[in-house]
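for the recovery benchmark. tokens below, seq after
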């Protein structure tokens, strides 16, 4: 089907959109340790532009430095957490319906990816195993543009990373849809004029995206 909408390109977050959310793995780790729910998110939302997490996503610290800083931030809140184990939570499982949608979109519109990631694990998806990394690397080839925070030194929600993606795709932000599982990352996209879709349930997000692009993604 031809796209008759104003959307001429689609940008995706990766973790929590194409793959399951790391927050699910955070919750399992917190339960295992017996710490309060959402402890990891609380640490990462405190001083969000200059904490260990932000520095790691901008490649400003090494893995050992991240672990030292993150664990100190946790201790300041009375928590004992392993930075290395928290990083191990980052690689989620691939959502098949999203990959199918990417394949359909690729035949119709330019698509790109903007991901906050770290130089941890295997590949851009921070995979736990080399096999998983290979599967994610194949998905990454579907995008015409991939912007990784760990490579460009800018992370969402900095508006510059969205502008960078739009420039590389040669698309006006006002003609672009953007999917992310975090509202804080959807807001700057919307401020630039993008059709921002917050991904809570992947099937509902695809419903919203279908309405935006004007054709089926199933």
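predicted aa per position
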């Amino acid at each position: 089907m031809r796209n008759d909408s104003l959307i001429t390109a689609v940008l995706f977050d990766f973790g929590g959109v194409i793959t399951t959310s790391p927050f699910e793995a955070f919750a399992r780790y917190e339960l295992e340790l017996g710490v309060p729910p959402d402890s990891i998110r609380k640490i990462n939302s405190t001083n969000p532009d200059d904490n260990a997490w932000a520095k790691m996503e901008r490649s400003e610290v090494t893995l050992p430095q991240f672990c030292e800083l993150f664990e100190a931030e946790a201790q300041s809140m009375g928590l004992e957490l392993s930075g290395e184990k928290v990083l191990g939570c980052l690689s989620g499982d691939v959502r098949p319906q999203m990959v199918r949608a990417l394949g359909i979109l690729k035949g119709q519109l330019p698509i790109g990816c903007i991901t906050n990631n770290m130089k941890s694990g295997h590949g851009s998806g921070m995979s736990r195993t080399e096999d998983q990394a290979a599967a994610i690397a194949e998905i990454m080839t579907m995008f015409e543009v991939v912007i990784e925070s760990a490579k460009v030194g800018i992370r969402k929600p900095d508006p510059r990373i969205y502008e960078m993606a739009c420039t590389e795709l040669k698309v006006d932000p006002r003609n672009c849809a953007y999917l992310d599982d975090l509202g804080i990352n959807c807001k700057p996209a919307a401020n630039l004029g993008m059709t921002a879709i917050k991904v809570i349930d992947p099937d509902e997000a695809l419903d919203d995206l279908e309405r935006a692009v004007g054709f089926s993604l199933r």
